[in-house]
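To the wet lab folks,

You asked to see what we're planning to order before we commit. Fair enough. Below is the target structure as tokens, and below that is the sequence we designed to fit it. If anything looks off to you, flag it before the synthesis order goes out.
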């Protein structure tokens, strides 16, 4: 794998532009951090006058993309093993070829969805206050995630590291809304990889005792309205829960294809 630099930026953008929804993390990180810095690096395999594949590193999380069904997944997998990548994500068909080279990892399949116009849900109950999250809310958000089965293992394993990463996201390429009751955080939704055209919604979570009150839908809708009002053309998210999918479709999201996480 060859490390890329700022001089390669336009060629990278041309390569990923064909499928912008699946490459939203590339666009967001390049726009905010560039091609080569402490937080972000991009690596490539060459294929004649183009790339065979690209690998984006953000902290210790990696995204893999290739235009080609026969890309050299073996070399990419070896590269990721050597780097002890904690999480690898990307378009389903790309990671399908990569997964056998990363044995012992958990593979999670999701659907990537896209929204261009938001449909407002019914308002949340009046006892909940919804507001934008600040970087100083990072610790409270991580504390909430540790109480949610889907997120608990990851956020308990390295709590301080996750707080630091979330603080960075809320300070740079992301935003968030939280629903509070009596001053305590009850539900959250975040964006990451925000760029001039799009954003990815992540970390949608509600504490069990506050579910079925429309909080998640209101938080996601609020983030979508904020981003679209700032001039973004669309937002994406991925999910594997049919109930969540129903909520997202009611807000205006439509499925684009499979997205995979290996960790």
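Sequence we intend to order:
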């Amino acid at each position: 794998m060859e490390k890329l630099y700022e001089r390669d930026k336009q060629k990278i953008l041309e390569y990923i532009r064909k499928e912008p929804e699946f490459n939203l993390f590339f666009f967001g990180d390049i726009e905010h951090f560039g091609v080569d810095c402490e937080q972000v690096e991009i690596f490539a395999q060459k294929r004649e006058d183009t790339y065979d594949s690209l690998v984006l590193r953000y902290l210790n999380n990696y995204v893999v993309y290739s235009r080609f069904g026969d890309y050299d997944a073996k070399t990419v997998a070896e590269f990721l093993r050597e780097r002890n990548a904690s999480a690898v994500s990307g378009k389903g068909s790309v990671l399908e070829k990569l997964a056998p080279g990363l044995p012992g990892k958990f593979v999670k399949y999701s659907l990537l969805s896209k929204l261009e116009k938001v449909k407002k849900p019914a308002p949340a109950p009046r006892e909940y206050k919804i507001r934008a999250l600040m970087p100083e809310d990072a610790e409270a958000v991580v504390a909430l995630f540790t109480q949610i089965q889907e997120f608990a293992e990851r956020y308990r394993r390295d709590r301080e590291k996750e707080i630091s990463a979330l603080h960075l996201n809320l300070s740079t390429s992301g935003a968030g809304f939280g629903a509070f009751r009596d001053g305590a955080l009850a539900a959250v939704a975040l964006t990451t990889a925000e760029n001039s055209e799009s954003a990815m919604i992540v970390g949608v979570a509600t504490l069990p005792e506050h579910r079925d009150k429309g909080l998640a839908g209101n938080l996601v809708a609020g983030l979508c309205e904020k981003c679209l009002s700032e001039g973004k053309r669309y937002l994406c998210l991925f999910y594997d829960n049919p109930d969540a999918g129903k909520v997202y479709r009611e807000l205006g999201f439509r499925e684009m294809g499979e997205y995979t996480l290996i960790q």
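Structural context that might help your review: The domain at 2-105 is CATH 3.40.630 (Aminopeptidase). The chain has two domains: 2-105, 115-256.

Thanks,
Computational group
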